[in-house]
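This section describes the prediction task in plain terms. A model, or a person checking by hand, is given the sequence of a single protein chain and must write out its three-dimensional structure as a string of tokens. No templates, partner chains or ligands are provided. The sample shown here is typical of the held-out split.
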Amino acid sequence: FNHDYSQTLVMKIGLAVPDGKGSSKVINSFESALEIIKTVDHLTLGIPKIIYLVGWQYNGHDDKYPAFFEVNKALKRPQDTSARESLLWLMNEAKKYHTIVSLHINMTDAYDDSPLWNEYVDKDMISKTGSGKLMVIGKYNDRKAYQINYKNEWQNGYAQMRIDHLLELLPPLKEAGTIHLDAWIVRESKGHYESAMTEAKYQKKILNYW
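The expected answer:
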């Protein structure tokens, strides 16, 4: 492991959720997140901490997957030129308080309003039911969530592309050495004649790439 998790306080901070109107309902901005980090550091007497930010992208939590390439503009500090600049500021400032700031992301779900949706459908990177329909695995933010097919995504190079792009967007993640992949679940794809074990094999490849 990159960190001794037995001696590290690991938490999440909720930042924003989509408001259903094309924007965000902000719970905590990047500035207020730092204030929480400061308080937690005082209360825990400076022990090592890792904080994963939830809702940092697009309009908030569970928005626009499989894409995670844009920082939520609603969380920007007034003095910064972009939300990305504000997030980089938070990642740097948190170090003063014995805290690594990383991200909560999802590599399982796909939504039909994602910038990557058409590519994932066209390249057959969504798992399917036995009848050949795209596999729906839940409903979040009033949108159906579809299961990404790990095997086809890996073989098309999109899992690698997503990881590379995110690390280019936010280089401090490399130094952080940790990421939270929420609900990273393996499911069989009957429409592709793939077992859960086959999907797990490619999930391991993604893990090793991380």
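For orientation: Strands lie at 9-14, 16-18, 24-26, 49-54, 99-105, 109-110, 136-140, 143-147, 180-181.
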